[in-house]
Design a protein that fits this description.
Blueprint lengths: L4 E4 L4 E4 L4 E3 L7 E4 H13 L2 H7 L1 H18 L8 E3 L6 E2 L20 H6 L9 E3 L5 E3 L17 H7 L6 H8 L9 E6 L6 E10 L5 E8 L6 E7 L7 E8 L2 H4 L2 E4 L3 E5 L4 E3 L7 E4 H15 L10 H19 L4 E7 L5 E2 L12 E6 L3 H7 L7 H19 L1
Antiparallel strand pairs: 1-4, 1-6, 2-3, 2-5, 7-8, 9-10, 10-11, 11-12, 13-18, 13-20, 14-17, 14-19, 15-16, 15-18
Helix pairs in contact: 1-3, 2-3
Amino acid sequence: MLDRQVVKSESATIKIPELEFEIPPEAQRGSLSTVEGILLRAADELEALQEERRKVGPQTAEAIDQFLLKLRACATGDSPFTFILDDPAGNSFIENPYAPSHDPSLSIKFYERTADQQASLGYLVDSSQTADDPDGRSMQEPNAASDQVRREPHGSVGAAAGHRAIAQSNSAEIVEALFRYTAPEEVMTFPSTCGACASRCETRMFVTNIPYFQEVIVMASTCDACGYRNSEVKPGGRIPEKGKRINLTVKNTADLSRDVIKSDTAGVKIPELDLELASGTLGGIVTTVEGLITKISESLERVHGFTFGDSLDEHKRLKWLDFKFRLSKLLNLEEPWTLILDDALANSFVAPVTDDIKDDHQLMFEEYERSWEQNEELGLNDIDTSAADAAYGSTDTTVKDKLEA
């Protein structure tokens, strides 16, 4: 754990809750180190002025001595602790030594930046939207128009957009892929606001049915002000009672061209590579089998910054090169391989290459009962529909009585 490499940008803050310790962005600017190195450097910097502190404030110096013992105990692995790296710019990194597999000790959370964080990073913040009160807190101007549109700098919601959209891609690509199955009977248009610049724009929505799959809702919006385009594919209908596991044996180029709808609740497995992507990885996408493998490769290179860096030791470098080579062999179809999509909400789909899905022997769909843990993660255990069921029951009884009368 202590040997994990860490990139700390100039805007990042490091926190250790167990010690109530925080390294501000101004300290250890733009550093490339390890978890142990960062803690030891912080301890050395605190200890540098201890002699002067003992002359001025002996009690303060003694308290810092006690704290340094705890800090060095964490740096040597004698005491467990939580290492939090908070970077509003998103340019910091903690190495995953188990990559490309999941690291159970490492979690990554994306969030929208506040106005103060936007300003500290140099983004333009519209001063007409907020004003500072005597306590330094931000408050809305009282004379602002009630229908005034709140504007945020471009890119401020980029980190959260992938989580909100079930599928996000070029509008033309989405339409081209879905229109292979059916055309919309009706396209609805309603006003909305741009997710990037908050300008007023229009969103187009239609419902379509994909054979052998289900009803889906396609939403697309384009902003004339900043050029931002967004497409979303949302599942329609009720929540399925069972999860779905899709197994596809890839043997030829026709299999690579199969359309794939991967929802943001689907996990991906490739047994031949010992590769497993947890639920939510890559978000939701509409692509092909070849496109999915390409996105996995690009995502691994982007997320794991030490893949080919000069700080990577030779053993890990060879491991990554071997994985990249094996991944390229999948696209070259040097040997058959298996793609597994495991979706607890059954909102994923792989298109068949035959007119009747029963004739496609390379594609198998398997339904399974969700575990309690999966329902808990999806929030289904907390859904209480008893009140609605009672209301519908009373309505049905009233209608029945009227009909009998």
